[in-house]
Amino acid sequence: MSKSTINLSTQELAEQNRLVVERFFHTMETQDFEVIKEIFAPEGKQLMPYAPKGYQSSVNGLDAVYKQFSELPSRFAYFRYPRRLYTTDDPNLIFAKFTGEIGLHDGSVYANDYVGTFKMENGKILEYAEYFNPFIMAKAFDIDLSA
Which residues form a coiled coil (predicted)? Predict the structure, then answer.
């Protein structure tokens, strides 16, 4: 197999994985959370390393991930995620830089800046790590970070 054939298949895999991540964001914006069951691996997880004390820093397994996302509309009116997605040298790792414009039921908007990594396996999200500014979150939701 020539080097260009290997690169092409690696590029195709990276693009397929990028499209799955794009589908994730589209799912969030349309609140069609049944799609979560299609795009996350059974052992998939979401990590939130900067979650304040008392908030989940990880959600493990497809059922828990689905539950986490499908319950969001009870707390938030809408989601918009202007974003840039980047493939990497590893076709199973997608990097995302995005802004969350999240509508609250009182008419206000929670906005934060994010970066995320998506580890993929067999065309599914195996791990989604979400990094956000906890100070912005704390101010928006009156969270005491000193606890």
Answer: none
